Amino acid sequence: MVNARIEDLLDILGEEYMKLENTFVMRNNQEMTKGIYSLNNYKAKQLAGRDKYSKKLAKMAKERIAGVNKKVEKIFLLSYATTNKDMIEVKIDEIRVKDLPKSAKHTLENMKSYNEKFIKSLAVNAYKQYNKSIQMISNSKVGDEIYRTIKKQMAYGIDNGIKIAYRVNKPGKKYGEVRNMSFKSYMEMKARTDINTEISANQVKHGAEAGIIFYFVDAFADCAKDHLNYQGKIYYNEGAELTPEARKYINQHHIKGMEWVRGAPVWLTTRPNCRHSFHAVPYSDVIKDTGTYKERYTYGKAKTNNYKATEQQRRNERLIRTYKLKRDNYLAEYSATKDKSFKIKANYYKSLVDKWIAENRKLINDNKFLSREPSRERTNYIVDNLGVNYDYK
After folding, report:
1. CB 3.0–4.6 Å: which of 82, 89, 116, 164 could bond 96 by disulfide?
2. 134-138: which pairs have CB atoms within 8 A and are 24 or more residues apart?
3. Which domain holds residue 267?
4. Do 283 and 316 belong together in one domain?
5. Higher pLDDT, 240 or 168
6. What percent of the chain has pLDDT over 90?
7. What pLDDT is attached to residue 175?
8. Which residues, in sequence order, are bridge partners of residue 298?
9. Is residue 232 part of a domain?
10. What would the pLDDT profile of 142-167 be if each residue is shown by its tens digit?
11. Please, are residues 161 and 183 in contact by the beta-carbon 8 Å criterion?
12. Cα 185 from Cα 245, distance rounded (Å)
């Protein structure tokens, strides 16, 4: 489901997860450097302190759950407010929640529970990654080799983050398929899916109450293969009251229902990271096949539009944030160890930051409808300083 405001908010959440993951990466690196100046005793010290370190990571995770959940709550409510202004009022200093449907409350609580589970899992996986690094270091025999392996493991953490395993349904496999992804990428994907699915479901419900029958799903030139045959089409709201004329049109043109396409096996708008949205279309435009809705919601090579450039701008901004963090990590390691190899890596990531800043500047210059978005740059600050006030208990 594409909504510029929601995309901005989800970017904030992604950055929060990235910073959290990075905290554990750098804590692992800090632990690995303990005893680095006495390599003869390094292995013994590291092996002796592993159990204590595992508990420290678990404590770190526990201390961060409440703060992350508070931000998730704000992001969810601000996203929900984009399409439900009658339920949520966003003021200068607070989010006032007048009411929320049960489904929204349930989704929010599930997101918080999921956060708690996976932040604890992040600590477990951080320890596993650290433990694996220590085992590899222990296989090194002499001082120089030990130090090279330590550096290699530290760099691996910074470059790759901490992976978590998750299970996805797979036809023909009883227990699905296990995949690995960085903590930040998976948690952002999950939040994006949960928020968009809830908003989409609410859209269907309120559309039915308002008597809106037909919706058009936007089309993208670079759409995933399994959604190609379902995009760029009209769907009808099964919950709306159908006129005889509408029912006849639906039957004659074999139009599918919104709930059908949102569910298994298609999962249009509800699958992780799906960009598609339902757009309400006037009844007469569908019945008489008039209006410009198809042209308006078709994006990519086939049409001249702003969508692709806007998405590229967001991608550039994400890359800049990511590479800045990695650059700063390597500078921190260089400052702590004075090892020039870390400075070289910091310079490498600095070059990527500079590259994508230049790419973004060129993109903006080439597309006059684009501009730097101060509001997007300030959104994180705004979210941090908003209170949440519920009119109900």
Report:
1. 89
2. 134/32, 134/46, 134/47, 134/50, 137/32, 137/42, 137/43, 137/46, 138/43, 138/46, 138/47
3. 210-299
4. no
5. 240
6. 42
7. 61
8. 219
9. yes
10. 778 888 999 999 999 999 999 988 77
11. yes
12. 46
Domain identity same for 282 and 244: yes
Work out how many domains the chain is built from and give that number.
Answer: 2
In a domain, 285, yes or no: yes
Nearest CA to 186 out of 160, 164, 169 is that of 164
58-86 pLDDT, tens digit each: 999 999 999 999 999 999 998 888 877 88
Which of 253, 272, 299 delimits the end of a domain? 299
- Is 107 inside a domain boundary? no
Residue 216: phi, psi to the nearest 5? -110, 135
